[in-house]
Amino acid sequence: MTVHSYVHSHLAITETLARLYLLLAQSMDRCVSEGGWSNDPEDELQAHLASTRAAVLDMLAGNRVVQAKVEEECNRVGSLVKACLMGGASREVALEELKAERAALKHKTMALTDLMAVFRTV
Fold first, then answer.
1. Is 58 left (phi over 0), alpha (psi -120 to 50) or beta?
2. Is residue 83 a contact partner of residue 90, using CB atoms and an 8 Å limit?
3. Please, is 23 exposed, middle or buried when counting C-beta atoms within 10 Å of its C-beta (0-12, 13-18, 19+)?
4. Sign of dihedral through CA atoms 64, 25, 41, 85?
5. Contacts of 122 (CB under 8 A, 6+ apart)
6. Measured between alpha carbons, how far is 26 from 105 in angstroms, rounded to an integer?
7. Where are the beta strands (DSSP E) in the chain?
8. From first to last of its 122 residues, what are the pLDDT tens digits of the chain?
9. What's the chain's Rg over C-alpha atoms?
10. CB-based contacts of 100: which residues, under 8 Å, 6+ apart?
11. Degrees, nearest 5: CA angle 59-80-71
12. Among residues 34, 83, 103, 120, which is most buried (max CB within 10 A)?
């Protein structure tokens, strides 16, 4: 494998992971703010999220540790979104946890986009 093909492979993984984090963030934003619901229909967002998640997990099949971390993160965010949407007493706790997860995703996404910029210059 040439350096160019390694860079292309790394770029594809990084782009797909960044897309997953952006979709997770959109899902969280819909719970946290009312304005988040106006863009794409929920079914469309969930379909994009599911296909991107599957693509990332497939790309990470060679590294079970990272794959498990990404899967755990997706499951955690999904559970928090469901708890938030159900309402009740647990909604406030879920909202606070979602805000913390959203902040972490923001930093991860920023780091990934910086990494993509580096890969594109190689």
1. alpha
2. yes
3. buried
4. positive
5. 3, 7
6. 11
7. none
8. 666 676 678 899 999 999 999 999 999 998 877 544 555 578 899 999 999 999 999 999 999 999 999 999 999 999 999 888 887 878 888 899 999 999 999 999 999 999 999 988 87
9. 16
10. none
11. 15
12. 83
Neighbour tally for 68: CB within 10 Å:
12
Q: Which residue has the tokens 């819909």?
A: 30
Query: What does the pLDDT read at residue 42?
Result: 82
Phi then psi for 9, rounded to 5 degrees? Answer: -65, -45
Query: For residue 30, what are its two tokens?
Result: 């819909």
Interaxial angle between packed helices 90-121 and 3-32, expressed in degrees from 0 to 180 and rounded to the nearest 10? 160
**End-to-end alpha carbon distance in the chain:** 15
Tokens describing residue 17: 């992971």
